[in-house]
């Protein structure tokens, strides 16, 4: 692989103008395609084929508008009055009439309607259900704004009016000041690492080109298939982070080769053949982890994984072609002025803090290993109390939060997450009537509404209001109890649905898939690392580090987002269960990134050992060579992910926090302490491979094939580019 990639690097260097032009054409073409072909993204996280999702589709067919997205406009009478007083009733009637005329709305119920009242026994609190023609996740921002404006205007009078519901959930956003700060921090780290703002800018620019093409491709895909609104944000966050890092590894090796006295062409070819091999292997691990999300059997999750994996592929291709082309234009100007024109056999990375660090860690290797395991294990403890849901906790002091509090005060905690039972069949109405009398006997039931039949009488709806809130485990148990009770209804088929039931089903599916997915990625990690290092114990150390990283990252996320520890530090506006997508996405992404650092760090140790260094010296030499780049890469990736934490969107916030925490734990604890300590403790045994596995192919990540003179790509004739090329 190293030889093939070195030839690709040499080709990109020779034809650097054409390579840059091709990537620019792809970027411009992607922008044009996104403008003309882009469609709408969806905020719906349903699983086709599940009871709750299928029932929602059937409700749309049987009841028409009843299957659209809904919002609850909550109305509270002035102190000492009720909603039935003439003045309040008139104001309420006018509000309902206005709500029914809003863009996209097909109906708005009156809380005082005798046929289907939605007012508390004290007649002080009621709610109007505003139903849209569009399904959940597809109500436009303009329609949402119109509803919120109407509610704000109505709240200026005597009545207290607030609104909540899925119909007004805003899609995740990206591009705010916090994200920009993350990119600026990455640029600063690059500038300090390189000692050159020009090289840092080139590194960042190539990564932006890659992530731009990837995200534009996803935007084009929205015109042909339904994609979650989270998908492009996840792809941008991940693509930018790995794009910067992959370019960093290539550029750092290129500069090292220049310092050793190589000409520009040879340095480019060698950098792509060595660091590029590690980039391909690392990128492959991320792609495998993301595409492996299909094991969950959830279409929207599979689409998110495939889209993000496509962006990673683009980032790898950029690192292997566009970066070498850009380095060809820079030439020796990639080095600080004082280092040009003379060879350096000794680099600063071989001395200083990191050299002292690895010496201390490997000298006290057993203590360092035990402390690392105990510390990360302690941080991981909250993971075992993790709860997940699709129901997002609204920001404090928002109209959604105030509306939910008013509903809870007037009707109980469960009013914000009602369950809907659909009865279908010739005996649907009698079955629904009978069930409405039995359901109140279940635990956690606060209220059961009378059946609402369809026009032809072959279907009926019953609403069940739980006593507990939508994210409470008691509500999850009520969903299961309802299904058990209604499993054998005479004359009809009963299905439990509604937004809360969908959330329960998705969370259950993801929780069930999590162990399978974890086993898959751990197994892949073992196989991949055995192939890369031709060793059994090195992969076991890497997998142990990965498991500790994931546990600590999710444990810290639970402590902050579920328990509320240090909530102000991350601008958290409300605590509660984690979004259901968080654990499985974090495991998949951190798997790839942890293997990145493992490969880049340990490959240099393996290279030193292959060249005859003693086991302990090989660990220290490889660490001194690779650790500065790994630290810089981790700081960059941490800053990019951390930039998405203060954005205010609950879905992206928890995922970004878990990834940023995972990067910090993996790079600065696992790879900087656990790995060198464990390998120093193992000694020669670390590189042992049983005889029965020696048939495995050699991936040559270290680029051993390039050390043979005949294997090196022939450098092209000198081509002067400014004053720097030679």
From TrEMBL:
Membrane topology: Multi-pass membrane protein
Domain of life of the source: Bacteria
InterPro entries assigned to the protein according to its UniProt record, in alphabetical order: MMPL_dom, Mycobact_MmpL, SSD
Location(s) in or outside the cell: Cell membrane
Pfam families tied to this protein: MMPL
Membrane spanning residue stretches: 180-197, 204-225, 231-252, 264-294, 306-332, 366-385, 512-533, 540-565, 577-595, 626-645, 657-682
Coiled coil: none
Domain SSD: 180-329
UniProt keyword annotations, A-Z: Cell membrane, Membrane, Transmembrane, Transmembrane helix
Family designation: Belongs to the resistance-nodulation-cell division (RND) (TC 2.A.6) family. MmpL subfamily.
Protein name: Putative drug exporter of the RND superfamily
Species whose genome carries this gene: Geodermatophilus africanus
